[in-house]
């Protein structure tokens, strides 16, 4: 009987090991065809770490406040991360340096997790129980997310939105963000081979032109005067 239990335990461990396939990141690149930056993971399967993870990623590769990724348009910025199987969930601390040189002030900035890039990008929807996509360290979201330009944040597992006072456009308007990404144990052998981190600037709403306002006011005044003259006659 003891032998039967022992064999059953061994079989269970073997089955669980074979069906457990987390992901570690092996490299990343700026879509659509930027050069791939290899990435080492010194602490694989370290989820969940309360302090900043030793698995660090800087976007752009080697970036800093003095050497940011310069956004010259309001279009989305897509980074694709290549992943390989591991035996558990791994947490990464991602820091981005982005300069707003789009010609328009930003009132917010969005981070999304998905697949594909450009027009083929699709936000991740965690609808299949057996497939656990990467998340923004949900549900713990620790350590805290930070952003040097915006002081408000709303978030869920797949999207982080920073907001606040406008970030003016200019080559020296650099925004630094820091957040965590978990590459989860998706339990599917040969599962996902990559995922996308999409970054989207939120432009300041265009003010209504003073000339347009003045024109509308003059039109309303003339219309009112015309009605008054008609009634007076």
Can you tell me about this structure?
The strands form 2 sheets. Strands 1, 2, 5, 7, 8, 10, 11 and 13 form an 8-stranded antiparallel β-sheet that branches. This protein has helices spanning 2-18, 210-232; strands spanning 22-30, 37-38, 56-59, 69-71, 77-86, 90-100, 106-115, 122-123, 146-147, 152-155, 159-167, 174-183, 194-203. β10 and β11 (159-167) form a beta hairpin. The radius of gyration is 25 Å and the shape is globular. It has one domain. The protein has 233 residues and is of the alpha+beta class. The protein starts with a helix and ends with a helix.
Short description:
By secondary structure, the chain is α+β, with helices and mostly antiparallel strands.
> How many discrete domains?
1
Give the overall shape: globular
Category by helix and strand content: alpha+beta
**Helical residues, percent:** 10-25%
The H/E string reads: HEEEEEEEEEEEEEH
- How many E-type strands? 13
Radius of gyration of CA atoms, rounded to a whole number: 25 Å
Mean pLDDT: 82
Quickly count the helices.
2
Low-confidence stretches: 1-20, 209-216, 218-232
Q: Provide the β-strand percentage band.
A: 35-45%
The main pleated sheet reads as: 8 strands, antiparallel
Distance between the termini: 111 Å
Keywords:
single chain, 233 residues, alpha+beta, eight-stranded antiparallel beta sheet, five-stranded mixed beta sheet, 2 helices, 37% strand, disordered N terminus, disordered C terminus
């Amino acid at each position: 009987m003891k032998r039967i239990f022992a064999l059953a335990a061994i079989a269970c461990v073997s089955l669980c090991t074979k069906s457990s396939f987390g992901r570690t990141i092996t490299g990343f690149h700026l879509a659509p065809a930027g050069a791939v930056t290899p990435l080492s993971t010194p602490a694989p399967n370290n989820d969940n770490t309360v302090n900043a993870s030793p698995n660090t990623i800087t976007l752009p590769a080697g970036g800093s406040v003095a050497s940011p990724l310069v956004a010259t348009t309001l279009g989305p910025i897509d980074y694709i991360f290549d992943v390989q199987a591991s035996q558990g969930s791994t947490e990464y601390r991602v820091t981005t340096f982005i300069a707003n040189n789009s010609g328009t002030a930003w009132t917010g900035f969005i981070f999304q997790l998905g697949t594909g890039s450009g027009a083929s990008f699709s936000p991740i929807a965690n609808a299949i129980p057996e497939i656990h996509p990467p998340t923004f360290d949900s549900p713990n979201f620790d350590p805290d997310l930070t952003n040097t330009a915006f002081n408000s944040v709303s978030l869920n597992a797949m999207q982080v939105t920073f907001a606040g006072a406008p970030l003016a456009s200019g080559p020296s308007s650099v925004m630094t963000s820091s957040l965590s990404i978990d590459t989860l144990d998706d339990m599917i052998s040969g599962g996902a081979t990559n995922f996308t981190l999409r970054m989207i600037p939120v432009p300041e709403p265009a003010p209504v032109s003073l000339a347009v306002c003045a024109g509308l006011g003059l039109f309303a005044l003339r219309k009112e005067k015309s009605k008054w003259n008609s009634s007076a006659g």
